[in-house]
């Protein structure tokens, strides 16, 4: 399993689906487990959850920065 690709795929799915986004907010481990659909160890699931959280945070920060830049013509 390519963890980086899995995280990128999950982030894209979560961003595009409000129901998945809500589930991820409430129970990230369950959401990832449902999305991955494979039987993988809990430790690996937790690592994927942390990766998804980090990527979503970085993406949100980038979006916010771009909006601020837009306000100042940047």
Summarize the structure in short:
The chain is an all-alpha fold. It has four helices and no strands.
Tell me the layout of helices and strands.
Blueprint: H1 3-16, H2 18-26, H3 28-36, H4 42-71
Helix pairs in contact: 1-2, 1-4, 2-3, 3-4
How many independent structural domains?
1
Order of helices and strands: HHHH
Task: Determine Rg (CA atoms, Å).
Answer: 14 Å
Number of helices: 4
Strand content: under 5%
Description:
The protein is an all-alpha fold and 74 residues long. The chain has one domain. Helix 1 crosses helix 4. The chain starts with a helix and ends with a helix. The model has no long low-confidence stretch (mean pLDDT 83).
Entry keywords:
single chain; 74 residues; mainly alpha
């Amino acid at each position: 399993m390519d963890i980086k690709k899995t995280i990128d795929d999950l982030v894209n799915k979560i961003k595009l689906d409000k129901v998945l986004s809500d589930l991820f907010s409430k129970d990230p481990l369950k959401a990832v487990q449902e999305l991955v659909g494979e039987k993988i160890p809990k430790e690996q699931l937790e690592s994927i959850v942390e990766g998804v959280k980090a990527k979503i945070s970085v993406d949100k920060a980038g979006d916010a920065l771009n909006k601020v830049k837009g306000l100042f013509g940047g």
